[in-house]
TrEMBL record:
It holds the Pfam family ROK. InterPro entries: ATPase_NBD, ROK. PANTHER family: BIFUNCTIONAL UDP-N-ACETYLGLUCOSAMINE 2-EPIMERASE_N-ACETYLMANNOSAMINE KINASE (PTHR18964:SF149), ROK (REPRESSOR, ORF, KINASE) FAMILY (PTHR18964). SUPFAM superfamilies: Actin-like ATPase domain. Belongs to the ROK (NagC/XylR) family. This is ROK family protein. It comes from Holdemanella biformis. Gene3D superfamilies: 3.30.420.40.
Length: 296
């Protein structure tokens, strides 16, 4: 049996998992990420891999970005500081464990998992979107992540769809994340005077007839459909898979978006539009990291 190690370095916690070639998670470890000193976190990763006591073929890893995927480097990240910025993390970890290490962002890894073992496994061109706290994306062609010329392909959060539209954080006004993500839905509702804790509660209010909530949810679905229709035109994917809490936990969201997309493409394309929910759980990023290690 072959084994890979999957690593998810987050701003708060780091997860490390041992995954076999059938994509079963055999063992896992979790510990706090040291936000100021990457050496501490990398040493804990090394210790976890040693405790797994299996011969591994390689390591797939995700960590906060923006990332230089070609050089395997963290460029900058708001939740990690000091020596994390500019760190050639793949080389640093390779020097510790003497195994090949492959870096990707979390959305690309989730996309890869969908394309190899999830809803896209029967397809060659798979577009993935995660609609959750933020909005991320990944494109997989023939079971390989498409990174683009500089490693920034599918960094889509700031794609502007609405002139002088909503904004939050560092997202441009009218960026797709500022309209369609769970954070955007919640914040737009709060600005409208609604008392909500998350996007699902905005949807609940919409279903009860609240006009402000209905407008916010309609906007989220409409602009996401516009965005996907653009993807259909540029890429012609065989399937678009939606993951994340908004897509998976709000009843009818994915189905409504698919219906809207079909009204925004050429008639000959309409029967080819396939927008589906992810069937993988919160471990999709880890599974994608294993896919990366096994297939690189």
């Amino acid at each position: 049996m072959k084994y890979a190690v999957a690593i998810d370095i987050g701003g708060t916690n780091t997860r490390v998992a041992l995954i076999d070639e059938k994509y079963k998670i055999e063992e896992r470890a979790q510990f706090s990420t040291d936000a100021d000193n990457p050496d501490i976190t990398l040493f804990k990763i090394k210790q976890a891999i040693e405790r797994f006591d299996k011969e591994i073929v390689g390591v797939g890893m995700s960590c906060p970005g923006p990332l230089d995927l070609i050089e395997g480097k963290i460029l900058t990240t708001p939740n990690l500081h000091g020596k994390w910025h500019g760190l050639c993390i793949t080389k640093e970890l390779e020097n510790l464990i003497h195994k090949p290490v492959y870096l990707e962002n979390d959305a690309n890894l989730a996309a890869l998992a969908e394309a190899i073992i999830g809803e896209g496994k029967e397809h060659n061109i798979v577009q993935y979107l995660t609609v959750s706290t933020g909005l991320g994306a990944g494109l997989v062609i023939n079971k390989k992540v498409f990174q683009g010329a500089h490693g920034f392909a599918n960094e889509v959060a700031n794609v502007c769809l609405w002139d002088n539209g909503p904004s939050h954080g560092s997202i441009y006004p009218g960026g797709v994340e500022a309209i369609c993500s769970g954070t955007a839905i919640e914040q737009r509702a709060e600005k409208a005077g609604l008392i909500v804790a998350h996007a699902g509660e905005v949807n609940d209010l919409a279903l009860k007839g609240n006009l402000e909530a209905q407008k916010i949810m309609d906007d989220a679905k409409l602009y996401l459909a516009n965005f996907i229709a653009g993807i259909q035109a540029f890429i012609d994917p065989e399937i678009v898979i939606l993951g994340g809490s908004v897509a998976l936990k709000i009843p009818g969201f994915v189905e409504d978006v698919e219906s809207l997309v079909k009204t925004k493409v050429y008639p000959v394309v309409e029967p080819l539009v396939k927008v589906r929910k992810s069937t993988l759980n919160e471990d999709s990023g880890l599974l994608g990291a294993a896919c990366l290690a096994f297939n690189s």
